[in-house]
């Protein structure tokens, strides 16, 4: 078999841990497989490099920040290759440009466009383990790019797709994907199998155990992803195409995104073009808007509420005040609530089961939690609540939906 293994920051956070990872990769090779290993920076290193870069905030240039933050993975790739040799195997390290990981030029959030897997195959032919620095690529100008926080997951799955690997193993500090973040819900249950679709939603709604784009790659190229612990041999969670019995699970997981802000524009003329002008001015300023709700029209006017990242909150108010003074009464019609969190329940079984939203709202109301906004899709329901309540809300929903039980109650 051809197996890609990706090890996250905590798995490679010390020399001892690197020795452990080296043994694990070597054992996989000795079992008769070709092995490519993708590594993250040692835990804390990317934050340290970002903090160094931010010392020069006035001159911030994303191209140069990518030059700095991409070095964390370079160090780990070299160290792991040495550790594999020390353990009696042979390995060769590769940086992004050495396997031609070509990306667009969106620094700090670049998207992979193509990979040349030939150098890795050459490495296997020589009996070596290929060790690849995650998180980094190169654009068409030759500038170093990075793939966004958690981006080594995406390198791992993209390398697996380019190699036609049998599967991609994502090694981390938990035993798989759980029904909620096990750090918040201690009795969260490990999910044995989950569809790409559900995992896409969980990842986009805050479960950072897998980067969203890694799941997209897995889905588009049909790469089975096995999320598991570096420190145990237990089976983890398989992320795969949808299977029949998955539909029986109504709610498979709960996720939350913290640090959002809710902004309301009061008394906007309910006429063609109002929403367009408000949201176009935000998009021109590069501000990403998440949930949007327009209230019922009264006297030809309406209220519009939406959420943005708290990092964009101040700028959002400034942009709306200056770009749309008529619609925002020069800012006087703007109100905001911060910090808020988006809390979501996800499950493919919602397609064929009704009543999930009602049950979610009942559980939250019994916990005394007020819902500020609600949005639903075929397989998820999201609500905006006060951020300080989010951990309690996750625990209440987890219990209320019976997610700690072996079979999910509906
Ligand atoms: P790595 O450094 O290995 O990439 P991350 O910190 O990026 O690890 O992701 C693993 C973490 O994701 C876990 O420690 C856990 O706290 C968090 N997490 C959030 N939601 C979930 C979930 N539903 N299942 C498992 N882990 C989750
Ligand atoms: N080192 C990068 C980060 O901390 C990428 C990764 O670990 O996946 O976000
Ligand atoms: Mg990660």
Description:
- The chain is an alpha/beta fold and 410 residues long.
- Among the domains are: 2-173, Acetylglutamate kinase-like (Carbamate kinase, 3-Layer(aba) Sandwich); 261-337, ACT domain (Alpha-Beta Plaits, 2-Layer Sandwich).
- The protein is 33% helix and 26% strand.
- The strands form 4 sheets. The protein has an 8-stranded mixed β-sheet with strand order 3-6-2-1-9-11-12-10, sandwiched between helices. A 6-stranded antiparallel β-sheet has the order 14-15-13-16-18-17.
- Helix 6 runs parallel beside helix 8 (212-221) and helix 7 runs antiparallel to helix 8.
- The chain binds adenosine-5'-diphosphate, aspartic acid (ASP) and magnesium ion.
- Residues 8-9, 40-41, 46, 72, 134-135, 149-153 line the site of aspartic acid.
- Adenosine-5'-diphosphate (ADP) binds at residues 8-11, 40, 150, 172-174, 177-178, 180-183, 207-209, 253.
């Amino acid at each position: 078999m051809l197996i890609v293994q990706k090890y996250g920051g905590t798995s490679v956070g010390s020399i001892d841990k690197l020795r452990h990872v080296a043994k694990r990769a070597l054992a996989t090779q000795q079992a008769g497989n070709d092995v490519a290993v993708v590594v993250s920076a040692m835990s804390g290193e990317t934050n340290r490099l970002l903090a160094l870069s931010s010392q020069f905030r006035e001159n911030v240039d994303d191209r140069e920040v990518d030059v700095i933050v991409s070095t964390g993975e370079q160090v780990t790739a070299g160290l792991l290759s040495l550790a594999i040799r020390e353990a009696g195997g042979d390995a060769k390290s590769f940086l992004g440009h050495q396997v031609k990981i070509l990306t667009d030029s969106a620094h700090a959030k670049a998207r992979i466009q193509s990979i040349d897997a030939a150098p890795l195959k050459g490495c296997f032919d020589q009996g070596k383990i290929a060790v690849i620095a995650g998180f980094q690529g190169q654009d068409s100008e030759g500038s170093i790019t990075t793939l966004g926080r958690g981006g080594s997951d995406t390198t791992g799955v993209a390398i697996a797709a380019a190699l036609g690997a049998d599967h991609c193993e994502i090694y981390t500090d938990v035993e798989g994907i759980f029904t909620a973040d096990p750090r918040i819900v201690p009795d969260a249950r490990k999910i044995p199998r989950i569809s790409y679709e559900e995992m896409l939603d969980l990842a986009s709604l805050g479960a950072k155990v897998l980067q969203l784009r890694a799941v997209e790659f897995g889905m588009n190229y049909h790469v089975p992803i096995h999320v598991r612990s570096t420190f145990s041999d237990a089976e983890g969670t398989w992320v795969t195409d949808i299977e029949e019995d998955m539909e029986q699970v109504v709610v498979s997981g709960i996720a939350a995104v913290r640090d959002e802000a809710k902004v309301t524009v009061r008394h906007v003329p309910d006429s063609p073009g109002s929403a367009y002008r408000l949201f176009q001015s935000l998009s021109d300023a590069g501000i990403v808007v998440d949930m949007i709700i327009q209230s019922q029209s009264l006297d030809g006017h309406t209220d519009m509420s939406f959420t943005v990242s708290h990092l964009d909150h101040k700028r959002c108010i400034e942009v709306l005040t200056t770009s749309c003074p008529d619609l925002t009464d020069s800012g006087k019609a703007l109100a905001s609530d911060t910090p808020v969190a988006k809390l979501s329940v996800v499950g493919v079984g919602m397609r064929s089961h009704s009543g999930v939203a009602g049950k979610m709202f009942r559980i939250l109301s019994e916990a005394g939690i007020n819902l500020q906004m609600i949005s639903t899709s075929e397989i998820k329901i999201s609500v905006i609540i006060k951020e300080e309540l989010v951990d309690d809300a996750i625990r209440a929903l987890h219990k209320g939906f019976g997610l700690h039980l072996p079979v999910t109650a509906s």
